[in-house]
Structure of MFS transporter:
Amino acid sequence: MEDHSQFRLLSERRFLPFFVTQFAGAFNDNLFKNALLLLVTYTAGGLFGLSADVVVNLAAMLFILPFFLFSAIAGQVADRYEKSAVIRWIKFAEVVIMGVAAVGLWFGWYEMLFLLLFLTGVQSAFFGPVKYAILPQALKDSELVGGNALVEMGTFVAILVGTLMAGVMMKAPVPGPVIAVAVALLAVAGLIAALRIPKAEAAAPDLKIRFRPLQETWKLMAIARDNHNVFLSILAISWFWFLGAAYLTQFPNFAKTHLMGDETVVTILLAIFTIGIAAGSIACERLSGHKIELGIVPIGSLGLSFFGIDLYFNMPEQPIPSDWWMIITDPHYRQVAIDLLAIGIFGGLFIVPLYAYVQREASPDTRARVIAALNIFNALFMVISALLAMLMLGVIGLSIPEFFLVLSIMNLIVAGFVYQQVPDFALRFVIWVLSHTVYRVSHHHLDRIPEEGPALLVCNHVSYMDALVIAGAVRRPVRFVMDHNIFATPIMGSFFRLAKTIPIGPKSKVPEIYEAAFNRIDEELAAGHLVCIFPEGKLTKDGEVDTFKSGVDMILQRRPVTVVPMALRGLWGSFFSHCGGPAFSHLPKRFWSRIHLLADYPVAPEEASATMLENKVKVLRGSQP
């Protein structure tokens, strides 16, 4: 049996060297940045005549500034050249930067180290676009979610380990030389791993590189806006980094002021939050069924808000001095740890499908530049997050738990806006919930549906849930043709309009709706979409496949396209079927159903007819209604 676990990728050369490279890079960035801040804070006591607090914020600015300045050029480079070579050059630059940094750490040349922190940000800015653009070339579509989950898990674990190791190394008798050796060795390890990354050909080899940071950044924004859904997904990802930066930045003061914790409490909060994101990222693979599933993104956003609000209401009323062990074991503090863990888990569920979706939907020849635009937005949102925190905590005077509460409410508002703008999110959410609660759906041979181009899907009609079951199983968006009366119901009507369903009715009663339906079907097929019809024209009243009407022949006469016969088994007897009386008028015979959706081989348009397709669907469905 084929191993579908994403961890299988860690044993394959097309992924493992890349994973090690990105892990070592993220580890090194955070080790160097945090070690430098600790050295300046506790050893130098300041720098350039500035206080330690100002220097810490200066360091954060120096590291993030290159993402604004160089991401556009980095995206061009990643699209223009073979990607494994780009990664090797970036890693070679890291070896040089960290080699010089090792000397500076050894001798305590802190002013020089701040320049090198900027250069570290530069090489990270160049690595970002190629890091995500190479994945769709190295992995299959069915592996994209798993691959992204591993990358996100690796990144956050590397951030955690790098941060913790900086603190551990600071306890050495002479920390500078110890940190110097560590950053140099990690840079070399990243380069060695990069040498093993397989080739990934250039996506746009004729692209002209333009070294105009500001102009190219604006051009990059235009490229990102070309696909509305991709652009809003980019904004949603950046919103996650806005929230993540807000939480992570406040942990030290949150632990000290509101939990009366020592330094180990900051560490355990960071560890809990990071482990949660890693766990949520890994869970995406199983929850999404090895495909890019937008339906779990709303679950992630709802969880972020729910547990953020829960955190506010579960803060200890009278905190006592605490350490890391009390955070885990004391009932007054344990709920805080559970809430932070859950926020991390739902953050992972939120972020991984979005990254995979952007990678898949972005045009291959501009993919790296779209990722570069994403990095710019991420950096911008993190800066805005810091400014908002300064405003709310410093000027308005909110407490940190109150700030977290405001963020949770803002998250609901932002999520509502995104899902209203991109109905696919809300649609896939409903489908995912149904297919993982009321129904257990097994798919058979759905790979027979063309991956691109127009096709007509024909299926038996058992219940009002048929379209949702099919939509949840088929990877491509599907336009369904359904009885116009459904659109008169307030909830169902709104939902099916959201799904771009095509209403149809009898020619004798509603000729205008009948004619408009066939025009819409033709337009959707002409645009290269999948259209699904139920040729029986109504729900079955006895569980058997009824006679296929001639509408399918009319569609194919106007637009000859490939036809894929499909069949549903297991929905007869549900609350949404006519078993035992009209749908919705009787109690269901069972509260969950095991459903099978089967696809037959595609049929050429010149061979297809209503009678032939009816027979194929009957054979496909078999004797089980």
